[in-house]
Write a structure and sequence with these properties.
Layout (H helix, E strand, L loop, with lengths): L4 H8 L2 H12 L5 H5 L6 H13 L3 E6 L2 E6 L2 H9 L24 E8 L3 H9 L1 H4 L7 E4 L6 E5 L8 E9 L3 E8 L3 H4 L3 E11 L2 E9 L6 H4 L2 H14 L6 H4 L4
Antiparallel strand pairs: 1-2, 3-9, 4-5, 5-6, 6-7, 7-8, 8-9
Helix pairs in contact: 1-4, 5-10
Length: 254
């Protein structure tokens, strides 16, 4: 979704499609057969609704062996909020009101967003500490950006590191695989290391950025719940040079 606000509203207008998002919110990464079992309609009917959700960017699919899994992508919903809803209603409770208020714990979270830029420019924004502060809760991320290098997340207003990790794989400007350990509270420290994969694919004059976060089943929502805000802030920063006045961009910005 480059700027497909109309597609998002169209997709959310249908109650069945909202129920499909609810179902993926409850249990992410489901097959078509699993989703079909939960709805009183034909397999073809479920496929048609999923296609509309995919075209709006609200559902992302991934192959796992012979199976095709469907994941909820909350980024377009966040973009609608950041560009429209936040002008009229504050404070905002993150997430769609029809969805549950607490994220269901899962092994994998997949987020996808289209940004009008080049792979090189997007890579620069991801790997430059000063730029990271513009859309990652005011935090900077420092590393030598080589396999085996440490990653440290800090904030000018925090007494110590807020996170750390290691570079597992790096292929500029296409792919970055890193571990991540959150350190900002005792609750998240107990979760240990998780794995984040950033993948950049050029699509005409834009880039498709896919972030995949692999987590334990009991992962604390704070570890992954901020991705929609971060990625919508990244898109706005690159495309406009402006910082979003949302928590993901300015809540802890010094």
């Amino acid at each position: 979704m480059v700027d497909g606000v109309d597609d998002v509203f169209k997709a959310l207008a249908d109650p069945t499609r909202r129920e499909l998002l609810d179902e993926l919110y409850r249990e992410d990464g489901q097959t078509l057969s699993a989703l079909e079992d939960r709805f009183e309609m034909s397999r073809f009917g479920v496929m048609k609704h999923l296609k509309v959700l995919e075209e709006a960017g609200l559902v992302v699919t991934r192959k796992r062996g012979r199976e095709k899994l469907h994941f909820l992508n909350a980024v377009p919903i966040r973009l609608v909020h950041d560009r429209w809803v936040s002008k009229y209603a504050e404070p905002w409770v993150a997430g769609l009101s029809d969805l549950k208020h607490e994220l269901e714990r899962t092994m994998e979270k997949v987020y996808e967003i289209y940004i009008r830029t080049t792979p090189e420019r997007l890579w620069q924004a991801i790997t430059t500490p000063e730029e990271r502060t513009k859309y990652t809760f005011g935090n900077r991320v420092d590393s030598e950006w080589a396999v085996g290098s440490d990653i440290v997340m800090t904030n000018a207003g925090a007494p110590g590191p807020l996170g750390d990790g290691e570079i597992l794989e790096i292929d500029p400007p296409r792919k970055l695989v890193q571990t991540l350990r959150a350190l900002w509270s005792d609750d998240v420290k107990a979760q240990g290391f998780t794995t984040v994969t950033w993948e950049i694919e050029q699509v005409q004059d834009s880039c498709c950025l896919t972030v995949t976060h692999l987590l334990p089943e009991d992962a604390h929502p704070e570890i992954y719940g901020g991705w929609p805000m971060i990625l919508s802030g990244l898109k706005t920063w690159i495309e406009t040079g402006e910082t979003l006045t949302t928590p993901g961009s300015i809540m802890y910005a010094g």
